[in-house]
Amino acid sequence: MQCTLSLLSIELSGLSPERVARAASKALRDSSARSLRPPAPVRSGPCCRSSLSAQATTTFLFLAVQRKGPAVTRSFVRPFSSSLGPQASRRRLAAMAPKKAVVEKKALLGRPSNNLAVGVVGMPNVGKSSLFNIMSRCDLGKVANFPYATIEPEEARVSVPDERFDWLCELYKPASKVPAFLTCVDIAGLTKGASTGAGLGNNFLANVRAVDGIFQVVRAFDDADVIHVEGDVDPIRDMEIISQELRLKDAEWVEKKQDALKKSLRGATGTANLRDKAMKEELDTVTKVLELLQSGRDVRKGTWSNKEIDVINDLLLLTAKPVTYLVNLSERDYIRKKNKWLPKIKAWIDENAPGDILIPFSVALEERLAIEFADDEAGLKAELEKLGTQSQIGKIMKTGYQSLSLIHYFTCGPDEVRAWTIRKDTPAPKAAGVIHTDFEKTFVCGEIMNYNDLKELGSESAVKAAGKQQQKGKGYEICDGDICYWKCGA
Ligand SMILES: Nc1nc2c(ncn2[C@@H]2O[C@H](COP(=O)(O)OP(=O)(O)OP(=O)(O)O)[C@@H](O)[C@H]2O)c(=O)[nH]1
Ligand SMILES: [Mg+2]
């Protein structure tokens, strides 16, 4: 049997493999009609270029086997360089299309964990332990009217209020209810010179380093009976002291790191290997961080690339942690929403820590409400109405949780309604892994509905009937308030 091998070169862009195949088959038929004259290249050149750009132009080589005979009994056409099917070819063509500008997702400052903690930080004797006890509804925090009553840190898990969780509990009436939690740590007071060891100095700073976010309690209440270590009440001075001490400690830490990197680079071979290159990049970032700190700015207020954020996250810097300013007012000032320091504090934050959140509250009021209305929801409501005010504890906990970029999804059923804490941008398998690590390893997909859809439609079956419970794969990033059912393999 005589065979003719024809090498057809088709320069094309954007043609589907099926069209290419049709064109090649036609060329083979034409060539057999011309009795073994080698076929002209089928549609070559710009005529075949579709509207796609020249960049996307490629050359496909086709090997056509043509049997000589009355008819072409068989021809097969396939891309020369690949044995993959049309789907792979389509993917390749898509990859050759002009690239869209890829927006890099901003990395988050801080530890990449779901188990994050907020530390209660501030000058001594400003009400930190009192706030800690109110939030955690326990008396672990050592409250006393003298500075440095707290030495060792105390830790408690406080529940984060969420009206969505309450609504879901109403709907499912579960046997067990588990809300979202935030870990809070009561930390010793900080004084001027702490970065060089004054007061509880380094001890205190090590405790701050161990948490992920900061509740900074600022004293703005007057009470001659409560000693202030600096002699008088001046929240601006106190805020300056705290931020300066944290910055000084960071600068000291970063300088050490810079020296170590310089030393290692001096000992480097001189040949630009990958390790040296990475070290050089790290040194550049560390130097940039040091310059920022020396200019009086906090690390969290800098502009960083994702690579720089990776380096910064390894340094566990104090000023990289998110801060929520909690201004402790007297009960009277809080209720009348007036205090001479408040506008100055706001202006200081706008200038020195723009974007950080300020929450005025009153330890004295919160303490009284917690004691007088411990098990009396209705009484508490009536008292707050009478005073024309509200408690800030829920808002404080919610803000601390959000400052750490924490969100939660729900699992719901008659046995349990539960909120599972994850970090923003967590992909579905990792989110499932919060329940059990096996769920991440054997993840198949998630059946996911949106809380708002459930609330609007009233029941799971209605959400399903409306096609609003959707199956999401590994690439899906969980949104705050999603209601998830995981499907995992064996
Ligand atoms: N009048 C008044 N006293 C307060 C207020 N908040 C706290 N105190 C009192 O201040 C004293 C110190 O409170 P703590 O909660 O122990 O303060 P701290 O910041 O934890 O103190 P250290 O652990 O020593 O740094 C206690 O006697 C509190 O009762 C307030 O809003 N008004
Ligand atoms: Mg204390």
Automatic annotation (TrEMBL):
Major localization listed first in the record, in broad terms: cytoplasm
Domain (OBG-type G): residue spans on this chain: 116-381
InterPro entries: ATPase_YchF/OLA1 (IPR004396), Beta-grasp_dom_sf (IPR012675), G_OBG (IPR031167), GTP-bd (IPR006073), P-loop_NTPase (IPR027417), TGS-like (IPR012676), TGS-like_dom_sf (IPR023192), YchF_C (IPR013029)
Binding site for ATP: 125-130, 329
GO cellular component terms listed in the entry, alphabetical order: cytoplasm
Subcellular location: Cytoplasm
Annotated TM spans: none
Keywords: ATP-binding, Cytoplasm, Hydrolase, Nucleotide-binding
Top-level lineage group: Eukaryota
Gene3D superfamilies, per the entry: 3.10.20.30, P-loop containing nucleotide triphosphate hydrolases, TGS-like domain
GO MF terms held by the record: ATP binding; ATP hydrolysis activity; GTP binding; ribosomal large subunit binding
Oligomer status and interactors: Monomer.
Family according to the record: Belongs to the TRAFAC class OBG-HflX-like GTPase superfamily. OBG GTPase family. YchF/OLA1 subfamily.
Described purpose of this protein according to its UniProt entry: Hydrolyzes ATP, and can also hydrolyze GTP with lower efficiency. Has lower affinity for GTP.
This protein's name: Obg-like ATPase 1
Species of provenance: Rhodotorula toruloides (strain NP11)
